[in-house]
Every structure is written in structure tokens, then in C-alpha cells.
Amino acid sequence: MSATAYKSPLLKRIRYKGPILFVHLILITLGFVNLYPFLWMLGTSFKAEAESSTDRMSPLPALKYRLSDSFDFRATLPLALQPGMADLEDEDFRRELPTLRSKLLLIDRLQRAASMNGVNAVVAGSLGAETDLPPSTLLQEMIQLGLLEVEKDHSHWLSQTAFQYQSAENSEELENALLAIQESQVIRVQEYAVLAKVDENRARQDLNQLVDVGMLQVLPMEAGRTELDRRFVLQPYSRGIIHSGLAPRHILTLWDLHRENRKQAETRSTFATSRIGVSEYASSYDIANEEEALLELAALQEAGYLTPASYQTMNYWVVLKGENFLLNFLTTLLLTTMVVLGTVLSSSMLGYAFASMQFPGKFWILGTMIFASILPGEARVIPIFKMLLSVNALDSLWGLMTWLVAFGVGNALLMAGFFLTLPKEVNEAASVDGAGVFRTFFDIALPMARPIVMTVGMFAFLTAWNDFMVPLLCTISRPSMQPLAVAVYNFQAGHPGKWHQINAAASIMILPVIFGFLLVQKHVVKSIAVGAVKG
């Protein structure tokens, strides 16, 4: 048998199945394109405020951490840096807290300057663009000369002899790099005063206090320098963890989260707890590798200080309660329920009358309804608005309901088409048994029309839930009565840039529509199938 005979079944399958697969691929692509904005909106509604502004394109929130529920602020206080602080009253304690924070910032700055990345950056910066000498060469030369000490974590520290080192035999690059590292790993009184935003006397007092507790050591005074130029450097054993397994940047991170939570609690009754992401943590403390930042945050999680919180579900509660959306949601729910019941009842009764009864002017009424249904909705706004205004029906739910129910009366044409498919023998049998028109309608015809009733109810639900123009005109002087469509618009205009809450508000409006359609989709499909078979 030839090779062509073996290939023919595959070629036949490709020939007949290929176009179908191609059409399916196009449909899947179009479905994803239409679904992506909703997924983006839903994902953004779970983001924190900073992430929703900086990382808008990603539909999924990044990994973030928040303070654990068992977090104890006082347990993170490195009291060795501020002796006697634990015995202070609340007011004095809060007054001394900025000083303790400034000391932590100082220690963190010195530790970062002495890290491997910090030393490499300083050395590379000192070389400038005039030489091709790599920083690693200078580092090795400094280690051989005893100017740098290498710790187990590969951090580099200047030795005591480096601060008095002077030699004309070595290269100018070495002298510049050594001077740059010296300047990065020492702190002077004036520099600390600027960092802590205190006067020079208080700065000298704080630095001497750190010397007393063994965190800093004083370098020899340079010739011709004043007391304000005295240099301080970290002690060798204070180059990492300083309290309960925490480094200064760990404590500062926990304090920043705690401070933001307290600030929001003082100004708002409902708020989302502050969070910090890996990239935000890395950029705040100049950590070049985000994997290292992730490991540090994971260590804080294992220690019980942090807990993962990528999805900020509190955004929904903040919008519902804090922005009064709960009232708007209940108003919309009540209005939609009344509109659906009114539309279904009026449309079904009118459609049954068109399909089963003969009365004068029937075709004139039917023609008028058809003509009115093809008119744009905007053309009917002003006449209906003036009519409701003349009877004082505006600024009330019943006036708004009447307007929306009137828009849905056109569904009577759908109901009439469905009732025409029902067997006439059913109505005749009910009439023989003595049932009147209303009894026949409510007990026989309406239950049989359940699929089209569900479809019309779904159309009325979508109209009442999503309509914007009519509720805006009817509630313009009563904001508390606004449905969700108007409330979301006003919220977006009043909160520019808060995409996490804006999308949470939009999701609150859209999700009930999706759930409602999923509940009645079987009946909608059935009504279409019945019309296709019997029409």
C-alpha cells in the first residue's frame, strides 16, 4: 500500500475538522478578548491602592503581606537603643518613638552601606568613567592590605586601620575608593541631625547614647576638625540582627504598616489594612535582588509578624459601608424587584390578550406598540419626564418604577408570540370547566409560559439594574435614592485614581447580573428553542 493511502485518513480529518477547529479558535479568541476587561476589573478590585496605580495592566494582584492579627507593636521595640522607654507613659512614649525610629534608620543605612552590593556600588561610583579597572580588583586589593574585613554573609567592613591609612605607593583609584567607602560607612553629628530632623545637641546626645549601648563606636578625631565632625561607625557585632531576630529594616517595615493602620483607624470607621509587596519592600531598602526581599518577608511570616494577603477583599466592604453603597445596593435591589414584577405582569397580561382575545382597536394598539418600540429611548425621555413632573412622581421610587415598567411593555410582543404557540384546546377546555379569563391566565397559561416569563424577567432585570439616564433624571435632587449605576458614576468622579475601589464598586454592580443570568439561562435557551420549533 502506498504512503498516500496511509495519509489519506489524516488528510480527510484535517479537511473536514480543520475549518471547525479554526472557527472554534476564533470564537475562543473573541471570547477571551471580551472577557479580559471583566477579569481585569475583578482582579484590580482586589489590589491595594498603590498596586492598582502602578501596576494597572496585570489582572492578578501580586504577592503582598500584611500584619498578622497577633502582632504586638511593643514586642518589636529594640529597647536597648532607647533605655527606659518601656517605662514611659503613652504620651511620652509616642514622643520618644520618632527618636527610636531615627536610630533604626541610621543603623539600617550604615548596614546597607557595608553590604556587598553597597561596597560594590561605592567602589564603582568612585572609579568614574575614566578607568576600566573593575570594582572587584579594588576590593581584592583592599582585603590583601587589611583595609576590608569580610564577614560570613559576604558583607565588607572597613578595618580600624583603614581610617588612618595613607600611602603614596598605591593607585589613585584605591585612595578614591577607600575614601568613598569610609564616607558611606560613617556618620557625623551634622548628618544625623539632618536625618533625624533634630538639632545638633540632640543629635550628639543620640549618637553618644548608641555608643553607650554598644551599637556604635567613635573614630579618632581628625586633625583640624570640630566636635560636630566627630565620626561614628557600627560595632562589628551590630552589623545584622539587633532585636528578637529582626534587622532594622524589618522593624521599620512592621512599624510603617502599624502606623498606616492606626492612621486609617483614627480617620475612618471602615478601612483596608496596609500591605507591602516584594518589589515595594526591595525598592524601599535598596535590595537589588527581589528573591532576597521575598526571603526576608517570608522569614517575617514564619516568625508570626506578617501574613500573606495578596487579595484585598476589604475593598468591597469599604465601598459598601464606608461609601454608603450598601444603601444604593438595597435601593437598586428593591427597584429592580418592583420593575421585574410590574414588567412581567403587565407584559404577560397584555400579550395574552393579544394572542387569545378579540377586541376593537386590537391591531391599532399592536401597531402603535411596534412603532413605539422602534423609537430611540432618548426621544421618549423628555415627554415622560414632563408627564411625571406634572403629577409629582419624580424623586420617588414609584415614579422611577413606573417609567422603567413603561419601557418594558414592549416585551408584550414576545409574550404574545409565545402564547400563540400554546394549543387553543387548552383555553377551550378551561372555558368548558367554567374558568374565567383571569383564572385561565393565572392557573393555566402563565405556568405554561414559564420559559418566556423568565426571559422577559431577565430583560426587565437588566434594564432596571443597568439603566443610567432615567435614574439620573429621577434622583438628581435626592442622592440618597440613587441606584447603583448612578452611584458608581458619582463615585468614580469623586475618587480619581482609586482604581481598586472604583473597580470594586463596578464589580458590585456587575456580579449580580452574571449570577442572575446563570440562574435563568436554561429557561432563556428553552424559550428560544420552543420558538424555533413551533414558530
**Whole-angstrom Rg:** 37 Å
The helicity comes to 55-70%
The whole-number mean of residue pLDDT values reads 79
How is the main sheet built? 3 strands, antiparallel
- Shape verdict: elongated
Structure in words:
- Helix content is 65%, strand content 4%.
- By secondary structure, it is mainly alpha-helical.
- It has a three-stranded antiparallel beta sheet with strand order 7-1-8.
- Strand 2 (148-150) and strand 3 form a beta hairpin.
- Helix 18 (424-432) packs antiparallel against helix 19 (437-448) and helix 20 (450-466) runs antiparallel to helix 23 (499-534).
- The longest helix has 42 residues, at 3-44.
- The radius of gyration is 37 Å and the shape is elongated.
- It starts with a helix and ends with a helix.
- 29% of the residues are buried.
- The model is unreliable at 1-5 (pLDDT under 50).
What is the compact description of this entry?
Helices cover 65% and strands 4% of the residues.
Keywords summarizing the entry:
about 525 residues; mainly alpha; three-stranded antiparallel β-sheet; disordered N terminus
Summarize the SSE layout with pairings.
Blueprint: H1 3-44, H2 49-54, E1 64-67, H3 90-114, H4 116-127, H5 135-144, E2 148-150, E3 156-158, H6 172-184, E4 187-188, H7 189-196, H8 200-212, E5 216-218, E6 231-234, H9 248-267, E7 276-277, H10 278-284, H11 290-302, E8 306-308, H12 314-322, H13 325-356, H14 362-373, H15 377-390, H16 397-407, H17 412-420, H18 424-432, H19 437-448, H20 450-466, H21 469-474, H22 484-494, H23 499-534
Antiparallel strand pairs: 1-7, 1-8, 2-3, 4-6, 5-6
Helix pairs in contact: 3-9, 4-5, 4-6, 7-8, 10-11, 12-13, 12-23, 13-16, 13-17, 13-20, 18-19, 20-23, 22-23
